[in-house]
């Protein structure tokens, strides 16, 4: 029983990580320049793309 539970958890972990690892970084774009400015100030990234 414990082995089946561990196997199930391992499979779920691999499946969930596969979705995250398989995706490349995507650039965030904002239609509202004021929102973009506020977010850039918050994350301390005044220029360059936001991923």
From TrEMBL:
Name of protein: Uncharacterized protein
Species of provenance: marine sediment metagenome
């Amino acid at each position: 029983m414990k082995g089946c539970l561990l196997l199930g958890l391992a499979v779920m972990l691999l499946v969930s990580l596969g979705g995250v690892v398989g995706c490349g970084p995507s650039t965030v774009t904002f239609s509202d320049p004021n929102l973009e400015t506020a977010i850039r100030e918050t994350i301390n990234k005044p220029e360059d793309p936001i991923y």
